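agent> Task received from the user: take the single chain below, predict its 3D structure, and emit structure tokens. No templates, no multimer pairing.
agent> Plan: (1) validate residues, (2) run structure prediction, (3) serialize to tokens, (4) report one or two observations.
agent> Step 1 OK, no nonstandard residues flagged.
tool_call: predict_structure(input=
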Amino acid sequence: MRGIATRNLKKQFGGLVAVNDVNFSLERGEIVGIIGPNGAGKSTLINLISGVDAPTEGSIHFNEQDVTAAPSHEKSRMGIARTFQTIHPLEDLNLRENVMVGFIFSRKLSQKQAWTAAEDLCRSLGLEEPDRPISRLNILEIKKMEIAHALASGPEVLFLDEIMAGLNSSETVSMIELIRKVAEDFHLGVGVVEHVMGVIRELTDRVIVLENGEVIARGPYDEVSRDPRVMQAYLGGALDA
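)
tool_result: status=success, residues=241
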């Protein structure tokens, strides 16, 4: 399998089990939603896969290779990329330069090569005027820049952690279209953590649902959204909104 697979993954912080016995897979060419109420373990799962945190138990495999112990920078170079909930662009660098960082440090391109590659990538994502300072970017453009920065490392799988947060309805539609384009054009596996269920319904091929660190359902959104355990996890609320 070309992609990510976790086996019986567990992460414990003291007495708190944040992720418990999670088996998750993401193959190139598919978009998978990772949903669940606050504190369900969604971001922790991405942190484990991307190497930000080390698992307490279990294993992580990428393209059939055990990468459980690999640190985040090695996983990035292997082809595992992610964005973060809280965006921290390099304020002293402009749009293009923020994207160039990924090409230089992950792909070892020269500064001249990275300059050209960053401009091409920015324009492919609809980011015009790549020499603008960060202060002149709107929220949608900053989020696109974060995706461009992640793509600059040359990933095979990309995890987006609440990439829609702070976007209005038209910006959300634009981001959905962009994620589809990125997944197709770059032949990526994309994992999407998201609270807006309309986005998950519209965007994903299938869904994994976490509650208290455990998988309580998996499958296509329409099927998962009718699961009584999932509805209960969302306090009895409908998931069609």
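agent> Step 4: summary for the user.
The longest helix spans residues 169-185.
agent> Done.
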